[in-house]
Amino acid sequence: MQIQVVKSKIHRVKVTGADLNYIGSITIDEALLDASNIIEGEKVAIVNINNGERFETYAIKGERNSGEITLNGPAARKVQKDDIIIIISYATLEFEEAKTFKPWIIFPNENDNSLT
């Protein structure tokens, strides 16, 4: 039997932009992607702390150490600049493997989205 578990989580980052006219996705600072083990193109769930919205999109790389968190395309309608969000990715694992799996969970600074 296989189950889905949290693979990666970027807990509480501030939205720096929303670009309705971009094709789609969420742009995430490359340093945050690396620290959370999320790769470009990976499906992610977004949870907006400010308004309760939950939706899915995919990750694209932003400039390293820029603090960028930009929702693009239709997802831009579900956030406002300065909203606090949680970004989560999941993995499908065998049940026994899932029991010992440890996800990558990071807690960036909410003020500037840095890792320090």
From TrEMBL:
Binding-site positions, substrate: T57, G73, P74, A75
Active site: S25, Y58
Cofactor(s) for this UniProt protein: pyruvate
Described function: Catalyzes the pyruvoyl-dependent decarboxylation of aspartate to produce beta-alanine.
Annotated organism of origin: Flavobacterium frigoritolerans
Complexes and interactors: Heterooctamer of four alpha and four beta subunits.
Family matches, as HAMAP family: PanD (MF_00446)
GO cellular component: a single term: cytosol
List of residues that carry Pyruvic acid (Ser): S25
Name used for this protein in its record: Aspartate 1-decarboxylase
Keyword hit for Plastid: no
Family label: Belongs to the PanD family.
Keywords, sorted A to Z: Autocatalytic cleavage, Cytoplasm, Decarboxylase, Lyase, Pantothenate biosynthesis, Pyruvate, Schiff base, Zymogen
GO biological process, one term: alanine biosynthetic process
Catalytic activity: L-aspartate + H(+) = beta-alanine + CO2
GO molecular function: aspartate 1-decarboxylase activity
InterPro entries in UniProt: Asp_de-COase-like_dom_sf, Asp_decarbox
PANTHER family given in the database record: ASPARTATE 1-DECARBOXYLASE (PTHR21012:SF0)
Principal subcellular localization: cytoplasm
Binding note for cofactor: Binds 1 pyruvoyl group covalently per subunit.
EC number(s) reported in the record: 4.1.1.11
Subcellular location: Cytoplasm
Record pathway: Cofactor biosynthesis; (R)-pantothenate biosynthesis; beta-alanine from L-aspartate: step 1/1
